[in-house]
């Protein structure tokens, strides 16, 4: 015998609908939770990426700024060192110039002692004659030293002949040297093509060049960077 189903009444229909709504709501809530969890995970992952990238950017900027600061510091240090070195070199050069200026002042007084100056002129003339080693030379001196130079040339020619066994025609030129040479002689041969400058100023300059390293050591001490010595 079969059972005939009866239609649901309103109350039962309403109850079934409520169950379906509750089920759908539950499904929706679970789905929403899943979406939220997934969204939170993706957000946290993306957030971590952004934070990591920003950290990298900040570190890179920091390193770049530190490097720039180090470069500026090196440039500043180098500039200050160079400035100090140049200032020291300038002061040292001024001191050396002062020493040679004093020497030049003292040298200008040499001709005041006529006897000693005449001997000096003879020695300078003999040295020039031996360097030129020519049969005919012209000797120039200052106008103020004309008499002393003539006497010195004659004596020097005799000394040269005795030493070498060769005669020399040594004459005093008509055009004198300027007073700025301080004294001494300038001897030339072969039509002035070869000249020995034995003026006092030239000898001071030559001595200055030779004595400069020694004078620097005396004034400033030995340089720790110097590896070779004369």
TrEMBL record:
InterPro entries: ATPase_E_C, ATPase_V1_Esu. GO terms for cellular component: proton-transporting two-sector ATPase complex, catalytic domain. It comes from the Eukaryota. The keyword Membrane does not apply. The keyword Ion transport applies. SUPFAM superfamilies: V-type ATPase subunit E-like (SSF160527). Keywords: Ion transport, Transport. One of its GO terms (molecular function) is proton-transporting ATPase activity, rotational mechanism. It holds the Pfam family vATP-synt_E. Belongs to the V-ATPase E subunit family. This is V-ATPase V1 sector subunit E. It comes from Coemansia biformis. The gene is VMA4.
